[in-house]
Amino acid sequence: MKLEAVGVEIKNLCKIFKSYHDKNGFYAVDHVSLQVEPGSLVTILGPSGCGKTTMLRMVAGFEIPSSGEILLKGREISTLPPNKRNVGMMFQSYALFPHLSVYDNIAYGLTLKRLPKPVIDQKVKDVLEIMQISTIIQRMPNQLSGGQQQRVALARAVVTEPSVLLFDEPLSNLDAKLREYMRDELRKIQQSLGITSIYVTHDQNEAMAISDKIVIMQAGTIEQMGTPWEIYTKPANRFVADFMGRANFVRSRITRIHPSETRVSTLGGEFTYTGDVSMISGENCVCMVRPDFFTFADNGKIEGRIVSRAYLGTSVEYVVAVGNEVVHMVDYGLRAHGIHAVGSIQHLAFDEKDICLFPAEAVDVEKEVHNV
Amino acid sequence: MLLQQPGLLALITVTLVLLVFFCIYPVLLVFIKTITDEAGNLDFSQAKEILSTRSFLEAFLNSIWLGLVVAVCSTIIGFVFAYAISRTSMRFKRFFHMVAMLPILSPPFVISLSVILLFGRSGVITKTIFGINNSNVYGFTFLAIVQILAMFPLAYLNLRGMLAALDSSVEDAARSLGSDRWQVFRKVTLPLCVPGILSSLLIVFAKSISDFGNPQLLAGDYSVLSVQAYMQIVGMYNLRGGAFMAISILLPSLLAFVIQKYWVAKKSYVTVTGKPSGDGYPIHEKKIVYPLFALCLIVTLVIVLFYGTVVWMSFVKTWGIDMSLSLKNYRFVFSRGLRPLMDSLILSLIATPITAILGMIIAFLLVRKQFFGKRLMQVATMIPFAIPGIVLGIGYILAFNTPPVVLTGTATIIVAALVFRTLSVGIESGTNSLMQVDRSIEEASTTLGANSFSTFTRISLPLMKEALYAGLVNAFVRSMTSISAVIFLVSVNWNLLTVSILSEIESSRLGAASAYCVLLMAVVLLAFGVLNLLMRNFGRRAQYQSKEGLV
After folding, report:
1. Which of A13-27, A121-135, B3-17, B332-346 is modeled with the greatest confidence?
2. Residue B63 has pLDDT above 70, yes or no
């Protein structure tokens, strides 16, 4: 079973809800544009209330956009009712029909198309085989385990061969272990079917693990779009950096700007920054370093005192005081140099290519004034 | 979005038009009629004239007083039943419950008929046993007793639902903190039941003042508004006067309904946590259980006595004189023809599915769809239920006696009255069951390509199955036993059993009336049983299917 891959394009999409506080209304989705390549899986990631579910429901047809366009295979669909869109959807609650057996659940969409019975039988059989659940065909939904329900829901969504598959936090009802397993299963099936997919979640690990591309949303707008690698290592702003994983935000100062490189002073050392900078020389800024970017190095420019540590088996987490700053680091090299004692002075280093600079915010300036 | 679904839009439009036409328009006409003259000019003379008469004021105060007494007594008895059945280890609970259902399943005036048979001029108890020759059952005392017996089941059901929903672990907590049973009852259970008690009082009050069948038979010199309104229309051909009197019942009963629905119901302490709480330990102390048991037993025996009397009467040759058993009454009834019974049955069988399905459709629209006129739909469905039946009946004559739509004398007008009078109960149960169905189940159906119609028939409706059956039963019982709403609507073409029973009693053919009553109750109980059986069978089949899957 291989489906025709179709591209989805969203242009300037807006959804305004009525609001008591604002007579202009509340922008749940605010002029969002994005493109989903045929056959790829794009994850919309963001905190709750960021508009990601509203986006998905507009693609599904449960919400009508206030303005903007949704193009499916180049055709504008934003005002079509949900049942005319040929879009498959996986719901958070699975939404299996409780009064129908597994077979009838999966066959439901096919019977609506009035396909002949043998064809339906064959298609249901095929999809059950892909999902590896052929043995439960006669059961009722309340007799299935969480993972089986998940598979039935997915089978039901793909058996009608939709142009695009939508996932609305489908794994949030599973326990941690099963969640990881099903996550990989979903990705595998999505890739083997080659179906264009949009996946909504608030779990950044999930997003990193399954996506071709991640779209980070906040307050109805897109903060950044990119591959998981880009988003984690080169976050566009402080919100994305913070949302995508643990990060140290260290007060820094731009010391020199050249056309090719920027010098920045931070954590008692001076470093070269190769990215683009919109700031001027002498300006305060914030330098983002992820805990796992630090390494212990005898020739490291950063000198710090270990304040506390936690041994986690594969790694050790340290809290290190560097001058006025306190930074977190994760050390994976413990096999080589063991665990450092609390109170000991150590030298730290990081790869200059890894750091990111963001403009200083009001909070940081205030903090500085306070410290002085 | 609606414009994309012409079927849905048409359905909403048709429903709204029907509701406005059959629920709002007739009632509005009753109001207009009372304040305008024949030419349609504003005219308060009729209102002034009636208000200035002593008899109106008397009837008004009588109705209110009767309502108050009946409400208080019914609520007390209802509470005793509810508490004893849901909180104690009393025996024969099922029996008490079933007997308490009798007045709800039978036409409202059966107990009145029985009172006449037992305590009337040739009553078995008054004349045969005590030898009293001129006993008079007509008046306040017996009317109140009859209404209390007929209406306490409403209070009982309401309070039982409330007690069942109150988490009994609260009472257990009070016990473990050192309260004795009486303190728990006085300080915890009773205060938590206040909303339920208030709403029972209001429901029974509204029901009592709008009751027509019992006062018509038993009120005698104690004049009440519903009977006065009927007399004005039937006796004096004064439709405007009748309409005005009916309106004056409508206001207090509507007020009671609105307070109950929008104020008391919101004060409820009942919380749905979705977490099953155990039944707790039922109260078993003899000093508590025995008095409660005695009270329930007395009330139950009185009801059994009254209903038994009617059954007995139907098999007796001449009541009070020749008490030997015979089938004379049934021969009379059968020879006169079963037209009224058949008419009642046919019209109810038409009205029942319409009511049930329409109720589910409206529940679906109200819970799941957003559309212009939703609020109107909500209010419209409530009106025929909340107002006294007699007002609805008058409204239907006013609305459908003259062009553009002439329906008087047809089956349609009776079916319409039956359908719209019962509709709100079905909507309520449909709404409740639909609220428990995850919305995304229907959305899943839509993304798979189903339109609103397929989603409703293949997903929502099967999930509302139980509410649908409850709606069917309710609609049938209410259709078969209703009287006040239809008494003005029957005709030579279409008569109803309840109306003919009433006229049999009025012309003192009590034997025939009893036989009709027994037939009517038999049909209702039969239908009740059959529907219950069907429902259980369907349930079992679904279960069976699922078990098969496990193998």
Report:
1. A121-135
2. yes
ipTM: 0.78
B440–A108: do the CB atoms touch at under 8 Å?
A: no
Q: What DSSP state is assigned to residue B225?
A: H
**Structural domain total, chain A:** 3
Q: How many CB pairs under 8 A join A and B?
A: 91
| Nearest neighbour of B549 by CB, restricted to A64, A86, A101 | A101
Please tell me the distance from the alpha carbon of residue B113 to that of residue B146, in angstroms, as a whole number: 10
SS3 of A40, please? Answer: coil
Q: Which pLDDT value is given to residue A362?
A: 57
- Considering the domain architecture, whether residues A176 and A317 belong to the same structural domain is answered as no
Assess whether A191 and A313 both reside in one domain. Answer: no
The span from the CA of A284 to the CA of A251, in Å, is: 7
Q: Give the gap in angstroms from C-alpha A81 to the nearest C-alpha of chain B.
A: 7
At B294, list the tokens.
């005695």
Q: DSSP states of A125-156 as a string?
A: HHHHHHTT-GGGTT--GGGS-HHHHHHHHHHH
What's the domain range around B140?
A: 51-326
Among partner residues B444, B458, B542, which is closest to A91 by beta-carbon distance? B444
Span B58-79, average pLDDT: 92
Please say which residue of B273, B297, B326 terminates a domain.
B326
Full-prediction pTM beyond 0.90? Answer: no
- Does residue B346 belong to the interface with chain A, where contact is any CB pair within 8 Å? no
List of chain B residues whose C-beta atoms are within 8 Å of the C-beta of residue A101? 545-546, 549
Q: Residue B6's domain is classified under what CATH number? A: 1.10.3720.10
Residue of B370, B445, B448, B461 for testing the chain A interface, max A β-carbons within 10 Å: B448
Taking the Cβ of residue B459 and every Cβ of chain A, the question of whether any pair is shorter than 8 Å is answered with: yes
Q: Report residues of chain A scoring pLDDT below 50.
A: 366, 368-372
Q: Does the beta carbon of B450 lie under 8 angstroms from any beta carbon of chain A?
A: yes
Handedness of CA B25, B28, B30, B32 (dihedral sign): negative
For residues B283 and B407, state if they share a domain: no
Q: Judge whether B3 is closer than 8 Å to chain A, CB to CB.
A: no
Q: Is B331 within the bounds of a domain?
A: no
Residues A363, A285 share a domain = yes
For residue A300, how many C-alpha atoms fall within 13 Å in the half-sphere facing its CB?
20
pLDDT one-digit tens code per residue, B419-478? 998 888 888 888 878 887 888 888 899 889 888 888 888 888 888 887 788 788 888 888
Phi-psi region of A302 (alpha: psi -120 to 50; beta: other; left: phi over 0): beta
